Amino acid sequence: MASTVIGAGITIEGEVTTDDDVVVQGTIRGKLQAKEGLVVESGAVIEADVVAGPIRIAGQVTGNLTSSDRVDLANGARVIGNVKAARITIADGAQFKGNVDMDV
Amino acid sequence: MAKGSSETVLGKSVRIRGRISGEGDLVVQGSLEGDVVLRGDFTLDEGAEAQSTITANDVTVAGTLEGGIQAEGEVTVTASGKFRGDVRAAQVAIEDGAVFAGRLDAEFDLPAELTEGASKRR
């Protein structure tokens, strides 16, 4: 289990920075920066630019995603924004609007 | 933890600048700059730092908190806790070894014998 979990009832408005894994079940507005993995669970809402290691989205994201590794948009994900990562998967059932930059 | 409520843990390396609000318990192990309004319990772990005004149910300070606390329930400053600011709560406990600088406003009714004694003296 990740050391940082932002629970379903919680809203953070501002800047979140961490060196560890983050699991988001709640809402973040502002900016999110994680050195390690980020999991945005179903029901979570991110209105922020995100910079992280591997990113897995099953919730809702409005903002640009930048990953040093990979971005996985799971079934049920809804992403509006640009994705910059070396690898990306978009699962059947994921909604995505934006540009993909795989840095080739 | 009540059923249906969630727990949020902000790990040691987490730094937050901003406002946190919502429902559920919150544990801060890293650093926090900004106000917290919570329907749930707030815990600032040992080693954690916060510059915030905390509004919550029960509040436990084992780290360093500068700001204020407004609690529906109990405020505890543990032996490792350092607090500077004003506290308003129904119950306040300051453990041996804790550092506390500020104002304490605990709302409680005096026991009957004390109020009687006071009225007799008058």
Please count the beta strands of chain A (DSSP E, at least 2 residues each): 15
SSE succession of chain A = EEEEEEEEEEEEEEE
Task: Find the structural class of chain A using helix and strand composition.
Answer: mainly beta
Hey, roughly how much beta strand do the residues of chain A contain? over 45%
Distance between the termini of chain B: 47 Å
Structural class of chain B: mainly beta
| Integer-rounded radius of gyration of chain A | 12 Å
Cα gyration radius of chain B (Å):
16 Å
Tally of DSSP helical segments of chain A? 0
Describe this structure in words.
- The complex is a heterodimer of chains A (104) and B (122).
- With 104 residues, chain A is mostly beta strands.
- Chain A has one domain.
- Chain A has no helices and 15 strands.
- Chain A has strands at residues 4-6, 10-18, 22-24, 27-34, 38-40, 45-52, 55-57, 60-62, 65-67, 70-73, 78-80, 83-84, 87-90, 95-97, 100-101.
- In chain A, strands 2, 4, 6, 8, 9, 11, 12, 14 and 15 form a 9-stranded parallel sheet that branches.
- Chain B has 122 residues and is mostly beta strands.
- Chain B has one domain (7-121).
- Helices cover 8% and strands 56% of the residues of chain B.
- Chain B is built from 1 helix and 14 strands.
- Chain B has one helix at 112-121; strands at residues 7-10, 15-23, 25-28, 31-33, 36-39, 42-44, 49-56, 59-61, 64-71, 74-77, 82-89, 91-94, 99-101, 104-106.
- In chain B, strands 2, 4, 5, 7, 9, 11, 13 and 14 form an 8-stranded parallel sheet that branches. A 6-stranded parallel sheet of chain B has the order 1-3-6-8-10-12, with no helix packed on it.
- The longest helix of chain B is centred in the C-terminal third of the chain and has 10 residues, at 112-121.
- Chain B is globular.
- The interface between A and B is medium-sized, with 25 and 27 residues.
- Strand 2 of chain A pairs antiparallel with strand 2 (15-23) of chain B, so a sheet runs across the interface.
